[in-house]
Write a structure and sequence with these properties.
binds S-adenosylmethionine; single chain; alpha/beta; Rossmann fold; 43% helix; 7 strands; 20% strand; 221 residues; seven-stranded mixed β-sheet
């Protein structure tokens, strides 16, 4: 089994199940035009997040790591009329590209982008006594996963769903001698969540056009 086979299967299902989507195509093109790294989630995972937000009935979504706004748009589309998504992004260029994409998608009323280091934006939300979020997607610097989990939980309520992306890293997650700071961040996040009371979690491995990886699903009890 190889990346080309996983990609072919993704293409097969995407062609069958995902409608043509000019907006998302333009978001991907905007990232290429702005020379952003090709690290947005896949089309299939975008649809999966949209469905999860829909299934959970979320009205308030928090995203850590915006890039060009692909995943934010997927999730915001599943929000009700009065729903809101706050997305956190460090890079000015990414923030500018995303804001433009949110406008193009007609979602600028639902999506608020806060530009700056996510750790401090999360602290701001806590200081502001932000209403709890119903759904959280963690997809930024992997070194900070333990902090993002901790702060997200402070902004959660019973039933909040938290998805942490890229927690398998081609299986490197089980290499306890790794020098890779991103893998170490994932491992520390796993350790944190395994010891944390009041949450229920599982990790799902995935293959597809983005290779071999996986995500952590946490629900606040
Ligand atoms: N969720 C996006 C999507 O699928 O469309 C992809 C996000 S990309 C994997 C990670 C993003 O996190 C990048 O845009 C990066 O600039 C941002 N980022 C990295 N470190 C950050 C930090 N400390 N604070 C806020 N954003 C950060």
């Amino acid at each position: 089994m190889s990346l080309s086979q996983w990609t072919a299967v993704d293409n097969y299902y995407n062609n069958l199940l995902l409608p043509e989507d000019d907006i998302l195509d333009k978001v991907r093109q905007s990232a290429i035009d702005a020379e952003l790294p090709p690290i947005a989630i896949s089309d299939a995972f975008g649809k999966y997040l949209e469905l999860l937000v829909q299934i959970s009935g979320a009205k308030r979504v928090l995203e850590i790591g915006t890039l060009a706004g692909f995943s934010a748009i997927c999730m915001a589309r599943a929000l009700p009329e009065n729903g809101k998504l706050i997305t956190l992004e460090y890079e000015q260029k990414n923030a500018d590209v995303s804001r433009d994409n949110f406008k193009q998608a007609g979602l600028e009323g639902k999506i608020e982008l806060r530009q700056g280091a996510a750790l401090s934006s999360l602290q701001d939300l806590i200081r502001e006594n932000s209403e709890p979020f119903d759904f959280v997607f963690i997809d930024a610097d992997k070194e900070n996963i333990p902090n993002y989990l901790d702060l997200s939980l402070k902004l959660s309520r019973k039933g909040t769903v938290i998805i942490t992306d890229n927690v398998v890293r081609e299986g490197e997650v089980i290499n306890m001698d790794t020098d890779d700071e991103m893998v170490k961040g994932v491992q520390k996040g796993n350790e944190y969540i395994s010891k944390r009371s009041g949450v229920s979690s599982t990790a799902i491995q995935t293959v597809g056009e983005k290779g071999y990886d996986g995500f952590l699903l946490t629900v606040v009890e």
